[in-house]
């Protein structure tokens, strides 16, 4: 409302004086709220730079650079890329949180020194007399001193879609919006102590999305850390021993080769490409979703989508679009003709066509205007009042009244039980029901209405002789895509619940309309009956589909109770009342028209507020998780065989059988690049917990087979071929080139196993990268840079024999390792271990 002080009602209250205002400002009792998040830019950079993964790779890179062999240190660039992605993502989240504000910053009118003056939002102080006018958002909590028909939309705070008419002495809360009338309010809470600021402060606490995928990868890294440090030291000692001891190594400079060889083992054990690919895959999924008007604010949340098995839906703004729509007018006298129905419909239009109609009145006007109805002749009117719950107009054909059925019928003479029964039936179907009644001109009570235009009489009352004429049905507008979307979630095994601040009967009716539970009728419950104990609440929720009259703290408690039962919970919403629950959920989803606070704490925002995007969002998450599990298996094979080869080298004191640049070349062609392609392939399999267990189970056979193949070649070929790998650099280069070829072949075998089925483009993928690896041998620059060698003569024969042996070992390991694992698990279970 843009009313000026000239149009404000005359009151005698003076409000605070200048000295009182200054005292409150000096003592911090103003409406200013500090805007800060829990993480600074320095914290974000520090958290992404100083990670376990970065530390291991950086230390290995420095060691190689100290030897002067910069070609073997190219693996270190992954640190820059991966760290950059993490920092950019979290800085974006920080900017979003810093902008978080439930309240709209604007000037407000307060009464000070007996005058009405405009002050900014932050200039309001405790005990101020504040004017709340139509169209304004309430900036601070307060108690109504005097009201002129103030009606508030509190849906952002309570979830209740109906507006509330407030009286003097009642409390109003910051964050609600005045839709009609005005009031003078004494401010009782400002700044961080106000209701909206309290919610904002709780919502602003930084919370990192927990990624099952990242947890699995970090578990691998932590395990490898305990293994890498001592193993690296042992590798260096063993490699120095192979060149003649420490003094000889230092004197001849061969310590450099020993360090490079040791780093080859360390780098191979770290799945550096997996960490990078995970970040890139999350980013690609986020970009794909953005093209469908879905904003992903935390990349890790893409993976969470795959694990969701419980979806809590806010009714208003999610299943419904938040608006009220006129449905139809039903004549109570079924024998009444078309003319009687037209008269009743015109009277309904005129009753709603007042200066400031409420939400229902506006919906009726829009619906009837679409049917070409226009204002009729009205000689007097009583505007709608929340206190009276009815309005009326005087027309040439009588006095027409429209309002709450139970209020109007209770004032009429006669028995209208049948009409009330119809009203209840329609209400139970989710309708908002109004009644239209008519008094003939000669029977209308003379004090019922004023004859002075739209002026309200001192005590208007209903005519007891009026006759009910028609029922008016209005309903919240259900989104056209709601039923289809809910059906998709049911098919995917996701349990959906509707949680709303509205009446549970109304919410339950809407849930039935969209077939929330399929052919089964949903079970509705009033949230006031919910237990406070988390475990008891969780048991109750298992048998409840719809909850009504839910408070904001109860929404959060519901999410916590579902967590206690092991569910992965997603929460949708658009109001401030949803913000805490959305933040508590594993995955928060906000509508595009949601309050800024809600959008800021959500991991996913449906920009165009279309509920139908959710299946695509979940499907994309499942694609990411299922494919990343596939490629994680590919990376972990390298970790397994690198660890085993390093252990074999330490125990047998042989030169390390390949260089870091070998593993860079082979890893890129058989793991890194193919993994990126496989990670982006279509996949709608629902994620099942146990990511790390399945990945390890897959990686062991391939890793053991590769390690045995390389170690057997390193142990036997020098003897068979007469190579002096300890003293002859050429012989050592031949062994390493042969080992690299074995590694490459085994890598192709593992890739083919991961990419199955091969009777599609996946088979072509394996063939292309296998061919690329072979072609690289014949390109001089590539061969020289990566120290590759084409075997010839007796070396070629030895290589062929080694490759055949490697293939046999691979087949045996695929058969024997799973059998050994199954037997071990059976034995452990017999002895009481949980496997």
Task: Please give a structural write-up.
It is a single chain. The protein is an alpha/beta fold and 835 residues long. The chain has four domains: 5-30 and 102-204, Calcium-transporting ATPase, cytoplasmic transduction domain A; 212-286 and 623-830, Calcium-transporting ATPase, transmembrane domain (Up-down Bundle), CATH 1.20.1110; 294-319 and 479-609, Rossmann fold; 323-478, Calcium-transporting ATPase, cytoplasmic domain N. The protein is built from 28 helices and 21 strands. Helix 22 runs antiparallel to helix 23 (660-679) and helix 25 packs across helix 28 (793-830). It is a multi-pass membrane protein. This is HAD-IC family P-type ATPase. Keywords: Membrane, Translocase, Transmembrane, Transmembrane helix.
Q: What distance separates the N and C termini?
A: 67 Å
Contiguous low-pLDDT stretches (5 residues minimum) are 1-6, 100-105, 443-458
Which value, in Å, is the CA radius of gyration? 37 Å
Number of domains: 4
Looking at CATH, the homologous superfamily of the largest domain is Calcium-transporting ATPase, transmembrane domain
């Amino acid at each position: 409302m843009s009313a000026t002080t000239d149009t404000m009602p005359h009151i005698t209250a003076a409000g605070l004086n200048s000295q009182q205002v200054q005292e409150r400002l000096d003592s911090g009792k103003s409406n200013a709220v500090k805007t800060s998040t829990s993480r600074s830019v320095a914290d974000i950079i520090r958290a992404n730079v100083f990670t376990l993964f970065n530390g291991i790779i950086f230390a290995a890179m420095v060691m190689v650079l100290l030897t002067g062999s910069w070609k073997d240190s190219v693996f270190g660039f992954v640190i820059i890329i991966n760290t950059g992605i993490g920092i950019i993502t979290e800085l974006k989240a920080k900017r979003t949180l810093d902008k978080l504000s439930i309240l709209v910053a604007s000037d407000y009118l307060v009464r000070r020194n007996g005058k009405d003056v405009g002050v900014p939002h932050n200039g309001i102080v405790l005990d101020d007399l504040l004017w709340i006018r139509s169209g304004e958002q309430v900036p601070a909590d307060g108690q109504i001193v005097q009201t002129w028909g103030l009606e508030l939309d509190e849906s952002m705070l309570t979830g209740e879609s109906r507006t509330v008419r407030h009286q003097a002495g009642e409390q109003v809360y910051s964050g609600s919006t005045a839709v009609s009338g005005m009031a003078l309010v004494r401010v009782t809470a400002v700044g961080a102590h106000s209701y909206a600021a309290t919610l904002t402060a709780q919502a602003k606490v930084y919370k990192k999305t927990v990624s099952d995928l990242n947890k699995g990868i970090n578990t691998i890294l932590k395990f490898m850390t305990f293994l890498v440090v001592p193993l690296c030291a042992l590798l260096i000692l063993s490699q120095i021993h192979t060149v003649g001891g420490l003094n000889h190594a230092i004197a001849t400079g061969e310590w450099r080769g020993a360090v490079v060889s040791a780093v080859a083992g360390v780098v191979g054990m770290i799945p550096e490409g997996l960490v990078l690919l995970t970040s890139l895959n999350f980013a690609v999924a986020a970009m794909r979703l953005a093209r469908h008007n879905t904003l992903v604010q935390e990349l890790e949340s893409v993976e969470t989508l795959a694990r969701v098995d419980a979806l809590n839906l806010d009714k208003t703004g999610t299943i419904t679009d938040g608006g009220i729509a006129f449905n139809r007018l039903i004549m109570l006298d079924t024998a009444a003709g078309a003319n009687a129905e037209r008269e009743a419909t015109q009277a309904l239009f005129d009753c709603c066509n007042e200066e400031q109609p409420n939400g229902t009145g506006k919906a009726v006007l829009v619906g009837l205007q679409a049917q070409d109805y226009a204002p009729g002749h009205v000689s007097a009117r009583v505007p709608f009042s929340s206190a009276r719950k009815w309005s009326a107009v005087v027309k040439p054909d009588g006095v027409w009244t429209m309002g709450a059925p139970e209020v109007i019928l209770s004032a009429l003479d006669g028995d209208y039980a049948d009409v009330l029964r119809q009203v209840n039936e329609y209400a139970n179907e989710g309708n908002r029901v109004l009644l239209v009644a008519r008094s003939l001109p000669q029977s209308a009570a003379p004090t019922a209405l004023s004859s002075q235009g739209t002026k309200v009489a001192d005590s208007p009352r209903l005519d007891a002789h009026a006759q009910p004429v028609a029922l008016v049905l209005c309903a919240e507008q259900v989104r056209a895509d709601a039923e289809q979307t809910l059906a998709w979630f049911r098919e995917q095994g996701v349990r959906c619940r509707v949680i709303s601040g509205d009446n549970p009967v109304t919410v339950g009716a809407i849930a039935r309309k969209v077939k929330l539970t399929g052919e089964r009728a949903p079970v509705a419950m009033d949230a006031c009956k919910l237990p406070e104990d988390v475990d008891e609440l969780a048991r109750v929720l298992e048998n409840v589909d719809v909850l009504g009259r839910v408070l904001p703290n109860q929404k959060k408690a519901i999410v916590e109770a579902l967590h206690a039962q092991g569910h992965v919970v997603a929460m949708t919403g658009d109001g401030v009342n949803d913000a805490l629950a959305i933040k508590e959920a594993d995955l928060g989803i906000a509508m595009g028209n949601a309050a800024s606070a809600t959008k800021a704490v959500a991991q996913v925002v449906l920009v165009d507020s279309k509920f139908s995007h959710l299946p695509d969002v979940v499907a994309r998450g499942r694609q990411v998780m299922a494919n990343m599990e596939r490629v994680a298996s590919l990376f972990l094979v390298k970790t397994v065989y690198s660890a085993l080869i390093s252990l074999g080298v330490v125990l047998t004191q042989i030169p390390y059988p390949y260089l870091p640049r070998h593993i860079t070349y082979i890893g890129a062609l058989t793991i890194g690049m193919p993994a990126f392609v496989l990670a982006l392939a279509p996949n709608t399999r629902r994620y099942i917990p146990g990511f790390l267990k399945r990945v390890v189970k897959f990686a062991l056979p391939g890793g053991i087979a590769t390690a045995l193949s390389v170690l057997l070649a390193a142990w036997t070929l020098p003897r068979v071929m007469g190579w002096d790998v300890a003293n002859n650099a050429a012989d050592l280069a031949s062994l390493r080139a042969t080992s690299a070829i074995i590694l490459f072949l085994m890598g192709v075998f593992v890739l083919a196993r991961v990419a199955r089925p091969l009777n599609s483009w996946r088979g072509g993928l394996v063939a292309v990268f296998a061919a690329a690896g072979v072609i690289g041998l014949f390109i001089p620059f590539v061969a020289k840079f990566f120290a590759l060698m084409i075997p010839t003569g007796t070396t070629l024969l030895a290589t062929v024999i080694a490759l055949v042996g490697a293939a046999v070992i691979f087949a045996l390991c695929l058969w024997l390792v799973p059998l050994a694992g199954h037997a071990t698990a059976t034995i452990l279970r017999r002895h009481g271990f949980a496997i």
